[in-house]
Design brief:
The structure holds 2 protein chains of 2 kinds. By secondary structure, chain A is mainly β. In chain A, 0% of the residues lie in helices and 51% in strands. Classes of the chains: A mainly beta, B mainly beta.
Amino acid sequence: DSGVTQTPKHLITATGQRVTLRCSPRSGDLSVYWYQQSLDQGLQFLIQYYNGEERAKGNILERFSAQQFPDLHSELNLSSLELGDSALYFCASSVSGGEQETQYFGPGTRLLVL
Amino acid sequence: DQQVKQNSPSLSVQEGRISILNCDYTNSMFDYFLWYKKYPAEGPTFLISISSIKDKNEDGRFTVFLNKSAKHLSLHIVPSQPGDSAVYFCAARSDSNYQLIWGAGTKLIIKP
């Protein structure tokens, strides 16, 4: 158990809908990362937050947005969903988001868009 | 454009023997490399890392080798154990941003 929690574990929805994925980092970690893993591919970095502020942005679509709240939990919002958004979405956390810090991953949310 | 490549989707090794997982990269700006291990229905777990100033890092049964001239790194597991059966991801980071660039993973199967 990494200490990072993600809800829900599974989500099935329809095209055009909007969903929110939630992540709680490890106790004491200030930085949160979001990744997308499509079938048989590596993880794609989406976005990073540190203590409530956006720190780095990767290949995140404009239909997607995220935020980190004062209690440090984070939410990833996916809107106008398309079939290709079906994937595993992982959240990770680290102490301060430093370059060589270990990231600890949650179990992921599996999203299926029908 | 895949900057980090793991060309073997799967690898099968006898228990007790050495497992060698390979990873190639194209970006010469990468200066820090990591291996993560992933079991089904779980998130990736950090295994071992290496900085570009080193060519080898060892942690118990796990050793990572880095060949910068070839832009190649490998993970050696000796001896291989049944619990090592998992998907192994190679990831790399440059000094210019915080992003980890990931390979597609290699599924390691340890046969009893």
